[in-house]
Amino acid sequence: MSILELILNFYPPCDCRTISPRKARTDGKQLVMISLPASRTALILIDLQKGIVRRPVVPFTGEVVVERSQKLAARFRAAGSLVILVNVAFAPDFADAVRTEVDRPLSPPAGGFAPDWTELVEGLAKPTDLLVTKRQWGAFYGTGLDLQLRRRGIETVVIGGIATNMGVESTARAAHEHGYGVVIAEDLTATFSEAMQRFACDNIFPMLGRVTTSDLITLAA
Predict the structure, then answer these.
(1) 3 state DSSP class of 196
(2) How far from the centroid of its chain's Cα atoms is residue 43's Cα?
(3) How far from 98 is each of 156, 182, 184, CA to CA, in Å?
(4) Distances in Å between the alpha carbon of 127 and those of 85, 130, 216?
(5) Taking the domains of the chain in order of start, what are their residue ranges?
(6) Architecture of domain 3-11+34-220
(7) Distance between CA atoms of residues 124 and 85, nearest Å
(8) pLDDT by residue (tens digit) across 129-180?
């Protein structure tokens, strides 16, 4: 059993219908077009790896999130913007995982993860992309992400991936705390229940940055 399977045991089965994030917004705000400077903006895609994308999530399936992420990543590359692909991986003995006293401890599956669990989905990565491996939910701690962003002059990060209220939210919080502008591409996110998705998108992300959809993001020279 994988970590995500353990997490899913705490939540009821999800309905993987594909719904419009615009219709699901509950904070009364309209999503608007956001224009960002190509040379100072990076796209960060969280945990679009085989062991996670194949899990049941809402409001979009993992396959839908990947397809939309690929389209936005292609636009970023065409504009000369940095694309960063983040995956999560652990040592075979799980020794590099976070170990603290929690109410819902997670353990490695018996026999370990599937051989391809940590691999990015096919066709996602391109030669110009920056690859980052993390050992916990967020992509900043214990990685070179902040260094790479600062030395490349990045001021704003656009974030998407799975799961919305875990890896995506943790990375967005850290980006905000590190002084980066944050844009959440809501249609590139999914998680384990509608309630989790809505709470993050309607209550947390608006306090960390701006929430929009991938089709409303433009890159200016």
Answers:
(1) helix
(2) 10
(3) 28, 26, 26
(4) 11, 8, 26
(5) 3-11+34-220
(6) 3-Layer(aba) Sandwich (3.40)
(7) 8
(8) 999 999 999 999 999 999 999 999 999 999 999 999 999 999 999 999 999 9
